[in-house]
Amino acid sequence: xxxxxxxxxxxxxxxxxxxxxxxxxxxxxxxxxxxxxxxxxxxxxxxxxxxxxxxxxxxxxxxxxxxxxxxxxxxxxxxxxxxxxxxxxxxxxxxxxxxxxxxxxxxxxxxxxxxxxxxxxxxxxxxxxxxxxxxxxxxxxxxxxxxxxxxxxxxxxxxxxxxxxxxxxxxxxxxxxxxxxxxxxxxx
Length: 188
Known about the structure:
Layout: E1 2-10, H1 15-25, E2 30-33, E3 37-39, E4 51-60, H2 66-78, E5 95-102, E6 111-113, E7 116-118, H3 127-136, E8 141-142, E9 146-147, H4 148-153, H5 157-160, E10 165-166
Antiparallel strand pairs: 1-4, 1-5, 2-4, 3-4, 3-10, 6-7, 8-9
């Protein structure tokens, strides 16, 4: 069995509904999901609507860490995600990133493959990943970078925290039914 931390984000269409649909789509692989946080687009200064972000802790029987990458892409496709190679940080209906994977022996997986770099090469720079992750694993350590609590206090992450707004009014509860008539928009 492998475990993974996945980052979820949406800034187009029904943002909250898309996060709920993604977590529901993880099915029995979903162990925990953080609270929702609202943030400005990444990188700082990038134009576009605000994001809703969360982090999920998942576990699955497939020992291949690429399983999580394929699951993320399936869920993004189901949400109508359109990738624009010319605009890496374009607004999106759903953005899922594999942040970290642990192998069946509970050791962190390291990968330099450009398709799946592990741990995620920019996670240590993103308050919208670290803050929700700490909700789930307060004593977590990001290999090569240190404890999440230390990363949140260091620049540039500390300066991003002021713009990260908790959204307790938008809980992600995978046990709530997803309205089949909910329009999951593919963007405007």
